[in-house]
């Protein structure tokens, strides 16, 4: 590329970054007149895409790929141009070519999926059959999406199960500590009735206590030194909590 063409390319890039797309397109055209290249035609395609001139953009993107069949940006912009003119079948083909070169191109992967869906829906509405390549791709994408949903659901279920297990472990530890310390120590905390009741409630919340009759719970609390009034309050408040769950 000559120095003049390189300078024009740089000028066009600055105009493009400034969102002066039509001016950038004019400058790229001048540069192409001096030294045509895949990059310049691709840049011109990008400028035209930015102002929704899809048909001219497709022509420039195709010229880019003619000069360099492996020019990824040219292939991708050809796909975008086809999307713009609602030629979804060709868009799928172009984006597939991008992915053959670079399977990790996330944008091309997403655009191809959108184009495949639009193509299938268009044929379905028209009562016609989509091309076999597109139909197969769409089925693969649907299966992949279903698999991803299943994996996400399983991951969420695992997360919930782990959370429940952790909570059960925490409650078990509280139960043991409460049984051995909190409730026993409550008889020495008569000056703080609130703490006495809260400690008793911590003990009563343990899942193991769900199968124990209230009468037995009352006897246990009284045996550990709680005043009957405090024990009844703890039982009553736990009963309300259980009703709200």
Please characterize this protein's 3D structure.
81% of the residues lie in helices and 0% in strands. It has 245 residues and is mostly helical. The radius of gyration is 35 Å and the shape is elongated.
Helix/strand/pairing category: mainly alpha
Unreliable segments (pLDDT under 50, ≥5 consecutive)?
A: 182-189
Task: Report the biggest beta sheet as strand number plus sense, adding barrel if it closes.
Answer: none
Shape: elongated
SSE sequence, one letter per element = HHHHHHHHHHH
Task: Bin the strand percentage.
Answer: under 5%
Q: What is the radius of gyration computed over CA atoms, rounded to a whole number of angstroms?
A: 35 Å
Helix content: over 70%
Number of strands: 0
| Mean pLDDT over the residues | 86
Termini gap: 74 Å
What count of helical segments does DSSP give?
Answer: 11
Short summary:
By secondary structure, the chain is mainly alpha-helical. Helix content is 81%, strand content 0%.
Lay out the secondary structure:
Elements: H1 3-17, H2 21-34, H3 38-50, H4 54-67, H5 72-84, H6 88-101, H7 106-126, H8 132-186, H9 193-204, H10 214-223, H11 228-244
Key features of this structure:
mainly alpha; 81% helix; elongated
């Amino acid at each position: 590329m000559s120095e003049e063409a390189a300078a024009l390319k740089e000028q066009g890039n600055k105009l493009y970054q400034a969102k002066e797309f039509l001016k950038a397109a004019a400058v790229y055209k001048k540069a192409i007149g001096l030294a045509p290249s895949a990059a310049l035609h691709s840049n011109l395609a990008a400028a035209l895409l930015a102002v929704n001139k899809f048909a001219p953009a497709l022509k420039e993107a195709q010229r880019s790929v003619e000069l360099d069949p492996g020019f990824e940006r040219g292939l991708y912009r050809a796909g975008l141009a086809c999307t713009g003119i609602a030629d979804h079948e060709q868009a799928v083909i172009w984006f597939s070519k991008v992915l053959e070169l670079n399977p990790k191109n996330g944008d091309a992967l997403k655009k191809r999926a959108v184009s495949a869906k639009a193509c299938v829906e268009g044929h379905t509405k028209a009562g016609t059959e989509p091309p076999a390549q597109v139909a197969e791709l769409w089925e693969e994408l649907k299966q992949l999406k279903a698999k991803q949903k299943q994996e996400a659901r399983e991951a969420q279920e695992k997360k919930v199960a782990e959370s429940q297990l952790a909570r059960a472990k925490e409650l078990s530890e509280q139960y043991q500590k409460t049984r051995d310390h909190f409730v026993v120590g409550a008889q020495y905390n008569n000056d703080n009735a609130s703490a006495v009741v809260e400690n008793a409630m911590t003990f009563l919340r343990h899942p193991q206590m769900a199968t124990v009759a209230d009468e037995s719970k009352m006897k246990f609390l009284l045996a550990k030194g709680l005043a009957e009034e405090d024990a009844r309050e703890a039982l009553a408040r736990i009963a309300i909590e259980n009703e709200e769950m």
